């Protein structure tokens, strides 16, 4: 698959692809929640390693997601810089000690505590982003909707999730179509253009993209209304996958990891692991 391929479900024969959509959804939510709550560096490193291993098992190649990763890396670095600019002493406040690495200008003094705090933020990206990409790239939207509906969730809500996942590649396709039209008119948006010109050009695509999205939503709504969607209490599904032994094993592994994170919250007497105090 080329680097400019759309980000969406990709059918492959891997243990991750064979799992139920419900299993992947629950695992993604649980891992994301515990990854965002905990600031225990030992736990976060373990979770990051686990996420990268699963990413490898899912056989997701770098060139398939290179564009998305560049966007994520850009905003991640921007977020880390913003944290330091707006709260350069936040790490000192959290850990209760102050070890200066070097004195800067005014209040911008770099401390070990601040550096350690922002390192934890960086690790969190490796904890939460891979499960999200795995969920998007390995989950058939229709199969996910049927799985959610089988556990008692309204099929209307389940179908809304399915449509949202299906809509992601369509939005990307519209974005690229509009971008090519802009470039045909002389508005250079490729890597040849300066960074700020590309950013400004991509922002101008937002308005036509919004209108195109609204038009597609109206078309889908009309089609569903004509087919009397939602008139009955239940519906049948073309694709349905019951939970197998592998699903229960996967949920058990994720459950153990999450319980480990909760246990560390108790041992650390809070969300933060503090290496600066004995």
From TrEMBL:
Q: Which UniProt keywords apply?
A: Membrane, Transmembrane, Transmembrane helix
How does this chain sit within the bilayer?
Multi-pass membrane protein
Please state where this protein is localized: Membrane
Q: Do you know which Pfam families this protein is assigned to?
A: CbiQ
Report TM segments.
Answer: 21-37, 43-58, 65-87, 245-267
Primary location group: membrane
What protein am I looking at?
Answer: Energy-coupling factor transporter transmembrane component T family protein
Origin species, per record, is Lapidilactobacillus achengensis
């Amino acid at each position: 698959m080329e680097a400019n391929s759309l980000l969406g479900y990709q059918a492959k024969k891997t243990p991750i692809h064979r799992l139920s959509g419900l299993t992947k959804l629950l695992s993604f939510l649980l891992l994301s929640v515990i990854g965002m709550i905990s600031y225990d560096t030992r736990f976060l490193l373990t979770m990051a390693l686990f996420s990268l291993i699963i990413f490898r098992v899912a056989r997701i190649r770098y060139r398939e997601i290179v564009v998305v990763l560049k966007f994520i890396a850009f905003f991640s670095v921007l977020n880390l810089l913003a944290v330091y600019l707006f709260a350069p002493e936040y790490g000192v406040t959290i850990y209760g000690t102050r070890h200066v690495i070097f004195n800067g200008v005014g209040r911008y003094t770099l401390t070990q505590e601040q550096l350690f705090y922002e390192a934890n933020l960086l690790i969190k990206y490796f904890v939460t982003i891979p499960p999200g990409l795995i969920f998007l790239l390995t989950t058939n939207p229709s199969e996910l909707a049927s799985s959610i509906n089988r556990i008692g969730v309204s099929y209307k809500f389940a179908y809304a999730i399915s449509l949202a996942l299906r809509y992601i590649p369509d939005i990307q396709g519209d974005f690229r179509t509009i971008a090519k039209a802009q470039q045909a008119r002389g508005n250079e948006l490729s890597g040849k253009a300066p960074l700020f010109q590309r950013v400004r050009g991509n922002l101008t695509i937002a308005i036509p993209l919004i209108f195109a999205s609204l038009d597609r939503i109206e078309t889908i709504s009309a089609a569903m209304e004509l087919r009397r969607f939602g008139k009955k209490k239940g519906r049948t599904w073309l694709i349905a996958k019951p939970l197998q032994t592998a699903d229960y094993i996967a949920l058990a592994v994720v459950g153990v990891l999450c319980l480990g994170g909760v246990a560390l919250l108790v041992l650390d007497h809070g969300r933060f692991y503090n290496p600066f105090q004995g």
